[in-house]
Each structure stands twice: as structure tokens, then as C-alpha cells.
Automatic annotation (TrEMBL):
Signal peptide: 1-33
Name of this protein: FrrB
Keywords: Signal
Organism encoding this protein: Prevotella communis
The keyword Signal appears for this protein: yes
Length: 252
């Protein structure tokens, strides 16, 4: 009986070691995953959808879902009108990589608009001359005091130039962040460098299409919860239009 009891206690100790080892491994893997993989879930609610100096719709909700690992990220973003059912619905996927201040990426934009009179409500339609997808590549660098980004459409439903050929529509943008009176500000200047009809009508060459100033401030709701609220004044000198946008960001 004594020998049996000793064997039993040895087995219990070995089982405890195995269980503790397994728990340690699980905790290590969980910690590793938490340290290395980041997930983003948020949504903006905006009074109007203004993009690169273009008016793309009225009040909208714009959700974001993304994962990132060691500089590599995959992000889904969308825009859905809340007031006007005729507003364009948008669904974008972006694959990006960041190292230091340098960033590169590819975005697949999709809009449920009509192309050539055919209402393309189907997402999985990639015909060369009959798709609502626009594929864009970008490269940029963040210098700290300012960032510079270049975007170029390379496939899909791009615009055309003065010869009626694919324009490879491009957009270049400078963003300067700063802080003033305990509020986060960003000043943006954007331009279309080449002739295209992609950006809100025809541009015959270099044209400044986006000048904006945006302020963001956290509004405290409770001791543990606050909501970022922002206001933006934007102008498009090319089309001589101006916009005022307010919105808030919902972060679980």
C-alpha cells in the first residue's frame, strides 16, 4: 500500500508538471499574439463624405476592421449612407507595409455605381472594361513634422486623359500634424499632377484639389470612456467648392 501511494503521488506530481507546462505554453502564446498581432475595430460617423476634395455623399457611417503584424497590415474600410439611399456604397481593402517612416501599399476600391449603363452590384466582377473596382498603389514617407504620400491608379475603373487613354490617375498629398490649445490638428494639401477625369470631373494637368484643416478632440463621456469628435474645413480650388464636415469616432 505504501509503494502504491508513493507511485500515485509521483504520477500526480508529473501530471501537475504537465498541466503547468501546458498552461505556461498557452500563456506564452497568448502573450506573443497580444504583443505581435494588433487588431483595429472602429467606425466613424460623418455629416458628409469628402474624399480628396470630392463630395461623395451625405451623412454616412464608415467602419474599419484591420489586422497588423510587424509592419504588415490588412485593412477593410467601408462607407454607407445613412440618409440618402442613392449615396454610393464603398468597400475597400488595403494591404500595406511600414518600416520606419516609409510606407507602401495597394488598395482595392469598390463602389456600387453604374459603369457603361450596367448597374454593377456584383462585387466579384473584374472585367477589364466593366468593373467598379479601382486598384491603386501608394508610397509615402513620414518625416515626423510632416508626411508625403503619392497614389496612382494602375488597374480597374480608372479615368482617362485628354487622348482618351487610361490616365493612371495620380494624387499627391502632404499632411502636417500639430497641437494647438490641447486639440490635435492636421493640415492637408493635395493635388492631381496629371490630366484625368477621375477626380470629380476633368483636370487638364496639375491641379490643387484638396486644402483642408481638421481638428480632433476627445469628449469625455465617463471616467473610463471618451469619444473622439472632429471638425474639418475643406476646399477644392480646382472645382471652387468648399465643405464643412463634423463627425465622431466610435471605438469599443
Amino acid at each position: 500500500m505504501c509503494i502504491t501511494a508513493i507511485c500515485f503521488h509521483k504520477k500526480v506530481k508529473r501530471m501537475k508538471k504537465i498541466v503547468l507546462f501546458a498552461l505556461g505554453m498557452a500563456m506564452s502564446m497568448t502573450t506573443f499574439a497580444q504583443d505581435e498581432v494588433e487588431t483595429t475595430i472602429s467606425a466613424d460617423v460623418v455629416s458628409s463624405y469628402i474624399w480628396r476634395g470630392q463630395d461623395l455623399g451625405s451623412t454616412a457611417v464608415q467602419p474599419t476592421l484591420g489586422v497588423a503584424y510587424k509592419g504588415l497590415s490588412l485593412t477593410a474600410w467601408g462607407s454607407y449612407g445613412l440618409v440618402n439611399p442613392a449615396d454610393t456604397k464603398e468597400f475597400d481593402l488595403t494591404l500595406a507595409y511600414t518600416i520606419g517612416g516609409l510606407n507602401i501599399g495597394i488598395t482595392d476600391y469598390w463602389f456600387n455605381q453604374a459603369v457603361g449603363g450596367d448597374p454593377l452590384s456584383r462585387y466579384f466582377k473584374y472585367e477589364a472594361h466593366g468593373t467598379n473596382h479601382v486598384f491603386e498603389a501608394n508610397v509615402g514617407y513620414d518625416f515626423g513634422v510632416a508626411s508625403l504620400q503619392w497614389f496612382t491608379n494602375f488597374a480597374g475603373n480608372d479615368g482617362v486623359n485628354k487622348d482618351g487613354k487610361r490616365a493612371y490617375s495620380s494624387y499627391v498629398e502632404t499632411i502636417v500634424p500639430f497641437k494647438l490649445a490641447s486639440v490635435d490638428w492636421t493640415a492637408t494639401a493635395g493635388a492631381v499632377p496629371f490630366a484625368t477625369d477621375f477626380y470629380n470631373g476633368w483636370t487638364s494637368g496639375f491641379a490643387v484639389t484638396n486644402l483642408s484643416l481638421k481638428a480632433t478632440k476627445d469628449i469625455k463621456v465617463t471616467d473610463s470612456f471618451s469619444v473622439p469628435v472632429f471638425a474639418q474645413v475643406a476646399a477644392n480650388p480646382c472645382t471652387q467648392n468648399a465643405y464643412f464636415v463634423v463627425g465622431l469616432t466610435l471605438i469599443p
